[in-house]
């Protein structure tokens, strides 16, 4: 599985909780959230566009930083 890094404009535990909920619904992904650095790492075989659109559902600005 490929590990992707995204920057998500999270400011609080509520924001990271929203990201956790939407990623859990996606299924077949492993992820880590670094709230202070506003980073989310997702391990998945899903297309980057699918991951990006899923993250945008939390209502925050999302930027793709590439693979890690």
Automatic annotation (TrEMBL):
<keyword id="KW-0813">Transport</keyword>
<keyword id="KW-0186">Copper</keyword>
<comment type="similarity">
    <text>Belongs to the ATX1 family.</text>
</comment>
<dbReference type="GO" id="GO:0046872">
    <property type="term" value="F:metal ion binding"/>
</dbReference>
<keyword id="KW-0187">Copper transport</keyword>
<feature type="domain" description="HMA">
    <location>
        <begin position="1"/>
        <end position="63"/>
    </location>
</feature>
<keyword id="KW-0479">Metal-binding</keyword>
<comment type="subunit">
    <text>Homodimer. Interacts with ATP7B. Interacts with ATP7A. Interacts (via dimer form) with SLC31A1 (via C-terminal domain); this interaction improves ATOX1 stability and controls intracellular Cu(I) levels.</text>
</comment>
<protein>
    <recommendedName>
        <fullName>Copper transport protein ATOX1</fullName>
    </recommendedName>
</protein>
<comment type="function">
    <text>Binds and deliver cytosolic copper to the copper ATPase proteins. May be important in cellular antioxidant defense.</text>
</comment>
<dbReference type="InterPro" id="IPR006121">
    <property type="entry name" value="HMA_dom"/>
</dbReference>
<dbReference type="InterPro" id="IPR036163">
    <property type="entry name" value="HMA_dom_sf"/>
</dbReference>
<keyword id="KW-0406">Ion transport</keyword>
<keyword id="KW-0143">Chaperone</keyword>
<dbReference type="Pfam" id="PF00403">
    <property type="entry name" value="HMA"/>
</dbReference>
<dbReference type="GO" id="GO:0016531">
    <property type="term" value="F:copper chaperone activity"/>
</dbReference>
<dbReference type="GO" id="GO:0005829">
    <property type="term" value="C:cytosol"/>
</dbReference>
<dbReference type="GO" id="GO:0006825">
    <property type="term" value="P:copper ion transport"/>
</dbReference>
<dbReference type="InterPro" id="IPR051881">
    <property type="entry name" value="Copper_transport_ATOX1-like"/>
</dbReference>
